[in-house]
Structure formats: structure tokens, C-alpha cells
Design a protein that fits this description.
Blueprint (H helix, E strand, L loop, with lengths): L13 H10 L29 H14 L3 H13 L2
Helix pairs in contact: 2-3
């Protein structure tokens, strides 16, 4: 967090911020808040496909050996196959 304090809790660590919000409600300090605006640019979309249990287990096993998530491994496999 770089030692900066948050404007509301005056905390300088994520733990202290969490402790502050454990005991405070946004309604108590609503007048101290400011409007925020931002844009969200969603680059990807997920689609789900059923996979047989044995294949899924093998994917998880291979992914673990390679140090990646199963999701990453499946996407790499599919990308490789689709680009052939």
C-alpha cells in the first residue's frame, strides 16, 4: 500500500482498512464520499463446455505438473488445435 493513508479510514495497511470497515458502515460517512467514474473494457468472454470426468482429472493432473491452472492449460490446448 506504499504507506499512503486512505481518505476515510486513515489506515495505512489493508489489515487496518479491513478492521475499520468491520466496525463502520458506509452510511455513517456517506457525506464524505465523492462520486467516481470509470470505464470497464471487458476483453474476454467465457463459455462453458461439459468435459468428461476422466478427461477433466487428467487435465488437472497435467496442469499441476506444468504449474498452470486447468483453465490455462485447456485454453492453450484448444488454441493450439484451432490454429492448426
Amino acid at each position: 500500500m506504499n504507506g499512503d493513508k486512505t481518505s476515510i479510514s486513515k489506515a495505512n495497511t489493508y489489515q487496518k482498512i479491513g478492521e475499520y470497515w468491520d466496525t463502520h458502515d458506509l452510511g455513517e460517512i456517506w457525506d464524505k464520499t465523492q462520486p467516481a467514474s470509470f470505464e470497464v473494457d471487458i476483453q474476454s468472454e467465457f463459455r462453458y463446455f461439459p468435459v468428461e470426468l476422466k478427461i477433466s482429472q487428467k487435465i488437472a493432473e497435467i496442469a499441476k505438473k506444468r504449474g498452470v491452472s486447468s483453465k490455462t492449460l485447456v485454453n492453450l490446448f484448444l488454441q493450439e488445435k484451432v490454429l492448426q
